[in-house]
Amino acid sequence: MRGAGPDIRVVDNWSWWKDVGAVEFVSDIARPFRVASMLAKESVSQRMSSEEGMSCAEFLYPLFQAFDFLHLHTKHNCWLQVGGGDQWGNITSGCEFVRKKTGHLVHGVTVPLLTTSSGDKLGKTAGNAVWLTGSSYPLYQFLLQTGDHDVATCLHRLTSLPPEEVDVIMQQHTTAPESFLAQKRLAEEVTRLVHGAEGLTHAETATKALFGDHHSLRSLTSDELLNLFSHVPTTQLNFDHLSSDTTVSEIAVQAKVVKSEFAVHQLLSTGGLYVNGDRVAENETFLPSLHMLPGNLTVFRVGKKTHHLIQWTH
């Protein structure tokens, strides 16, 4: 990648691991490692003493990471590895492995983990990771849902806002927490940083469309709708099977938006079922002119967050 800063090369470690067989792994990569040293690592002892224990795959993971460092050092002149604080053991193992193989003194640096107020780290292991996809919407929504106890830390560590500006934002947020001012600013800053101004605009437009009425959704093209709802369950239904008295709730059951007619009636009684952003009424008839969006699409929403897309075919 080329830009205003230094050139960046992104590589996939599969390109070198695909040619490494089991015999080579054991004889060439695993041989320099000592089990006693691996067992002495704090990360290993913590995992082994946990209720789940430690799998063989987890125990051997430092070997894979060490070989990655060796390859990057010898093929791409990489001398420094940077990782989260929980990677200290893996990084030091890699530095020692490179020294034994090449005689070179390479280096490692760790940075504090980004954790929640309860001490849980943000990442795929903890099950609360957000993935960098082509769409900016998931990242934007993930950040909007940051807890009040965590948002100040995230503003300080994930944005370039001056500390004094973060303090002002948090003061305003404390005065009116229901406005989610701090979360919105966090989502704006990070989404713009990762996806650019255009990506931020898309995320804001998508959010307005998702949680607005049918006018907001109808302002999007079919391609924009498909991209927006690419991450939600999708059902294809045959348009020709519709009758003049088919109800919206019947379609919701048929498409498995909800499990049963009883569940539909419960949602309708509490006003929790929406189609294209509008609340569904009891016995509301499905009208293609009203309930279909561009591209023959219909969007159901259950409650505040659960969406389901229907694609109509002939």
What does this structure look like?
Belongs to the class-I aminoacyl-tRNA synthetase family. This is Tyrosine--tRNA ligase. GO terms for molecular function: ATP binding; RNA binding; tyrosine-tRNA ligase activity. It holds the Pfam family tRNA-synt_1b. Keywords: Aminoacyl-tRNA synthetase, ATP-binding, Ligase, Nucleotide-binding, Protein biosynthesis, RNA-binding. With about 325 residues, the protein is α/β, with parallel strands linked by helices. The chain folds into three domains: about 15-110, 3-Layer(aba) Sandwich (Rossmann fold); about 135-210, Tyrosyl-Transfer RNA Synthetase (Orthogonal Bundle), CATH 1.10.240; about 220-314, Structural Genomics Hypothetical 15.5 Kd Protein In mrcA-pckA Intergenic Region, Chain A. Helix content is about 50%, strand content about 10%. It has 15 helices and seven strands. The protein has helices at about 15, 20-30, 35-40, 40-50, 55-75, 90-100, 135-145, 150-160, 165-175, 180-210, 215-220, 220-230, 250-255, 260-270, 290, and strands at about 80-85, 105-110, 235-240, 275, 280, 295-300, 305-314. A hairpin with a 3-residue loop joins β6 (about 295-300) and β7. It is elongated and about 80 Å long. The two termini are about 45 Å apart. The mean pLDDT is about 90.
